[in-house]
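Quick board copy: two proteins, each given as sequence then tokens.
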Amino acid sequence: MRVLGPVHVWALGVGIVLVGEFMGWNFSVGKGGAMGALIACWVIGLLYTCVAMIDSEVTSTVAAAGGQYAQAKHIMGPLMAFNVGLYLVMAYTMLEAADALIVGDLLTILAEQTGYDALDPKPFVILIISMLAFLNYRGVFMTLTLNFIITAAAFVTIVILFVGVQPWTAGAVLKHSDLLTDLPYGWIGVIAAFQFGIWYYLGIEGTCQAAEEVRSPSRSLPLGTMTGIMTLLIAATLTWYVCSGLLPWEYLGQATVPLYDAARMTGSTTLQVFLFVGTLFAATASANGCINDASRAWFSMGRDRYMPHWFGAVHPRYRTPYRSILFLIPIAVSFAFTGLLDQVITFSILSGLLGYTFMPINMIMFRRKWPLGSIRRGYVHPFHPIPAIVLMLLCITTFFATYLGFGTQLLAMMLFYVVVSLWFSMHRYKYVRRADQFTMNWPKPQGY
């Protein structure tokens, strides 16, 4: 059912990502120092601006569930579509696991600060994932309306903290003159910081996943996506500014909940309460959006028989991909139970990065096969092919950055996708009905 507007698209994209301002981004400080993390924040912000521009054009034209997966099957073919579908599912499921970890760790920290015995975070992990899965099971409109409310509230807490530290009075609360240092590991550290700089924005491409449920894709998808990336650029810069002025970079680079820790350093109980709530809301909104996006990508692959057709079912009453929602719950819980936040984040980043690497090729092929004027586009992004070229160069640089710190994980992930690609080509492809996939009423591609 087409029930969503631009506000819901914004809530889906920003809701998934905003948790990156509350945790995870700060690991880039450990790689390149505070100034290196700021450079990574803005350079990766450019990467995601290119992602948002490209996604806005292609998805407003290919308005189908599955987002980049739907784009790939229409433009590049089945093997690429299969891989892109897996990139999406893995990136969102790992991000969901990281969100659940943060909720569990945050409640454990609160218990310790209030004098209670240490809590086991695992029951909270199961509880938050189960509750949000049930919400997604019941319907997308209610799910994303809730996401809008709690995402907006979480963003407001960042603004409140920024105002609360009196940035207009140098040295009153913020100590940038004392805490900011030169690049501790040189420019190679800055490049290494690109890996976790992604965490500021990872998931904004999730706005594409609800394309079939948006009332006016040509308006809502570009508007929701582009305003979403603007929101995140502002939030990322404010977050860095406050945290780098309150916490030493050596601590900031390994903190679990840096914005909450920054609020504690102010000595204000009010700010601490606001940021506790903000962190909790951001993690909840992100996990909520991840369940929505991962299940729709998995559902789309089941509907097209890239995965067993059983996953392509829609609930007869709630009209949600309920089987895909339920199937992905234990996978997210099992990764969250590892407790290895940086490892889980890295797996999510790598899957997302592989998806971004596909996008420039997809965009160039899209413009060549269906030039401007040959089909109706909901939105045409400017300066083509510059955003595609910039995106590809930044993706290659970020792969190198990931290799510097997590080379084994990078190689293991690449091997995994090679193996599953062979499985698809040699076994699963025979079940795919290619003629049923092309749902767009387009003319034949140019040159065919």
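And the next:
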Amino acid sequence: MAAAGVTVEQLAAYVDGSQRGLPPVVGRRPPGELAERLGLARWIREGGMTPEAYAEFLATYLDEGTRFHHPGYLGHQIAAPDFPAALADFVHGAANNPMAVYEMGAAAATVEFEVLRWMLDKVGYGEAGGGVLTHGGSLANLTALLAARAAAVPDAWTDGVPGDLALLAPESAHYSLTRAAAILGLGERAVMPLDVDPLGRVDVARLPAALDRVRRAGRRPMALVAAACATATGLYDDLRGIGEFCAENGLWFHVDGAHGASALLAEEHRGLLDGVELADSLIWDAHKMLRTSSLAAAVLTRREGDLDAAFRQRASYLFYGDQGFDLIGRTVECSKAELGLKVFLNLAWRGERGLGDYVAGRYAAARRLWELAGERPGFRLPYEPESNIVCFRYGTGDQAAIRERLTEDGAFHLSSAEVGGVRHLRVSVMAPATDDKTLEALLDRICEMGGGRSGSGV
């Protein structure tokens, strides 16, 4: 109990200090040096950690990580977790109810059922839809495409995958979709690109030509993928236009809404997902804009039976009796964590309105950055942001060098991405503590750097 008290006390101080932007946003000590500082080899070899020693270890451990609650954390699409989700992790760490099989965690499974009902309702699938929570968006995309494969080739689970299937996706699609195609046995070459506009959004008018190319190549389309929103730019595809095309042509329509589906909770941004109810499948990460800790991602299908068809398995020690409440038939994982509890407790504390306000606030902060940068000379912004992600360039130098220097300073952590084949700085506004003062300070620091070192920046 003493160690638990130490943990709560230090984590509270860690979050508070991070939110106030006091320490560096990211630690970058080399692994060998960090392992020595943490005493890892000694503790592994000898054991014997006491609450007092643990307190010292935890302080160092937290100090050397990345502070997602920090106002200067503007890097990747990982949540600054809200405290109710952290409580759920604490509960699961002690209770350890892996609940893909109902009898191993009835309360956890029931919570997940209700969270999924809520998500299905938000998407517009209602009672006819089905869902499951998985450990991350990559696994969620794989699961959704397993359902698509089962719909296209019902015997693939037992007989193997025919060599003529194709997955239609824009080149801007998340890497996990190409990885899923390879895992599913289609192979990377089966991923056939869709025509896009200069910002990487699917060109609906050119979908007929893309489908014709696929069929002339002797391929059968297994699924067509759209983004809500794209990982690099935060821009949304035209879901209604794509969905109507897929319905007219008998194509499975999959939406990767890992990051942007949470806009469904913000009234002023809900229209970005117009047409999402036409999708046959959708993924939605809670560990991004719903502020849970990693990982918790939903796989949702418009027809419940499609998700149940994704896996065809027999195991006498697990698959027996009444399977009506078991989720194991819908997921890769058997020992699946109590993921629904994270989402539920965030909802229970903040409410749907509170989570929606958070999404709207982060989207507004990104737009504010776009406005502030647009008022300054030297900044080039290729598009108006639709989410909490903004890409821009400063000067003509190497943008990656700017990012590296910002990270070395410790006050800001950005990422970078290519837009139209050109390297840009990329900001993802995730932390509630990021405000106008933070954004102005970021732009000031970039201007002070003078555009980075020379180079193509591509």
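Board note added afterward: The first strand starts at residue 73 and ends at 74.
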